[in-house]
Amino acid sequence: MASSDRISRFSRLEIESEALTQARPEDTLKGESHYFEEAETFFRQGDYESALRFYAKVLEHNPSRAAAWSGQVRMLIELGEFPEARLWADKALERFPKDPELLAAKAVALSRLGDLRAALAYSDASFEEKGDTAYVWLARGDIMLARKEKRADACFERARLLSRKDWFVEWLISRVYFYYRHFAAALASVQSVLCAEAGRAQIWIHTGLCQQELGMTAVALASYQRAYELEPHQEKARVLYRSLKEAGWWNTLRARWGRWTTR
After folding, report:
1. Is residue 4 packed enough to be buried (19+ CB in 10 Å), middle (13-18) or exposed (0-12)?
2. Structure confidence by residue, pLDDT tens digits, 119-148
3. What is the reported pTM?
4. For a FRET experiment, which of 34, 137, 215, 255 has its CA 20 to 30 Å from that of 241?
């Protein structure tokens, strides 16, 4: 990401944060609910930038909505902005020091930054606050993978059960596996998502990424093509397809050149 984009994003969040000290009239509740639904929708679509903006809009209307604060932290983690996620988690925990999902989100941010001891402590704290939710267990699994512990799978299974096997939680599990380069497990998870959500472009893109990392070039190309067919405006699918196709062509050319020069 360009540095100007980074500055712009967090300058905007700081400005929006300053507005939180001013209470909004009760008649803005409808706006708050609308923005929260939009944020959740964008999250499920894999559009983390838009989700981040809409969670911020929720807090403009109601700074006491802890779920919007944790939503912001989670979006920053999804965007790979781990220091900022930790910073925003600290801001949120000043308001809600015992919120289990905020504690879990900070735990993940710390884990991604390499502070595994502190991450485990915050994860423990999330459970001490009776945080038996899918995300709290998802976060625990994230930390277990970072610690290279086999208990991660049990944590993810608990997250599945608490979410009643919601496809979205399974997709998030796949993304965590992918981050820690467990590509086979990531592919297995996302393929189960495709059984229920084959019409979502972002699922096909993620499937293609897993396949590509496993050297399954032909099926990865097909996955990217399917994503593009579902959403022709999906620039990411088009770029991934083209880059993989070109890489395959160059690899073939190099292999042929090698055979020619060794004759």
Report:
1. exposed
2. 999 999 999 988 799 999 999 999 999 999
3. 0.84
4. 255
- Which segments of the chain does DSSP mark as H helices, in order? 3-18, 29-44, 48-61, 66-78, 82-95, 100-112, 116-128, 134-146, 152-162, 167-179, 183-194, 201-213, 217-230, 235-261
Contact 96, 102 (CB under 8 A): yes
Residue type, 45: Q
146 touches 109 (CB < 8 A): no
The two three-digit tokens of residue 35, written as one number: 């923005």
31 Cβ contact list (under 8 Å, min separation 6):
57, 61
Q: What are phi and psi of 231, to 5 degrees?
A: -135, 90
Q: Which residues, including other chains, have CB under 8 Å from residue 57's CB and lie 6 or more apart? A: 16, 31, 35, 38, 39
Model confidence over 29-76: pLDDT tens digits? 568 999 999 999 999 999 999 999 999 999 999 999 999 999 999 999
C-alpha span between 15 and 249 (Å, rounded):
48
**175 touches 209 (CB < 8 A):** no
